[in-house]
Amino acid sequence: MASLHGHDAVVRLLLARSDVDVNSKEKDQWTPLHVASFHDYEAVVQLLLVRGDVDVNSKDKDGRTPLYIASENSYEAVVRLLLARSDVGVNYKENGGQSPLWVASQHGNDAVVRLLLNRSDVDVNSKDEDGWSPLLVASNNVHEAVLRLLLARSDVNINSKDDTGWSPLWVRPVMATRRVTEDEFHGTLLILNGFVCSG
Predict the structure, then answer these.
(1) Cβ neighbours of residue 124 under 8 Å, at least 6 residues apart?
(2) Residues 155-169 as b or e (16 or more Cβ within 10 Å = b)
(3) How many whole angstroms separate alpha carbon 67 and alpha carbon 93?
(4) pTM of the prediction?
(5) Which residues of the chain have pLDDT under 70?
(6) Domain ranges of the chain
(7) What is the DSSP letter of 40?
(8) How far is the C-alpha of 140 from the C-alpha of 118, rounded, in Å?
(9) Would you state the CATH architecture of domain 1-89?
(10) How confident is the model over 1-57, as pLDDT tens digits?
């Protein structure tokens, strides 16, 4: 409950006990670290990560790790704290095959994408269950800043296709709720064409 409400002083007192179960789970398989990461409780996350026995890669019923949840919600500070742990699984996927980089690219959070790309072990071409890569989903959602970050990586596969044969250059109409302006659409095409021509 202390992690749920962000009471870092209470969390600190509880963690002082060596017999406290820092990885206890509720019905949806969330741990205190999941809860703190979801609510952007930076101080609580920091306290939990100090414990050497905390499972930083614990998965909930949907296969989501605390890093995935923080990346999905664009919590840059929490992502940075989690990535500071050498044992964090930067490429761990949820049940639909989405990695933290994938979901951050989908939401267009360039700050979180930049943090994840700074990890040498991140899989920039990781695909979800439908064959969508971070580059494809960023292209589809017209996230230009994220596209530039991904395309700056020499190991990104610009021709990666999903299960239906779509590649990033096809740029099909965005499936997100917002409308895409003509300038955004053409801007994305120019970015992709520029990298194809220079590649």
Answers:
(1) 101, 117, 134, 135, 150, 153, 155, 156
(2) ebebebbbeeebbbe
(3) 10
(4) 0.84
(5) 1-7, 171-199
(6) 1-89
(7) T
(8) 23
(9) Alpha Horseshoe (1.25)
(10) 444 455 688 888 888 888 999 999 999 999 999 999 999 999 999 999 999 899 999
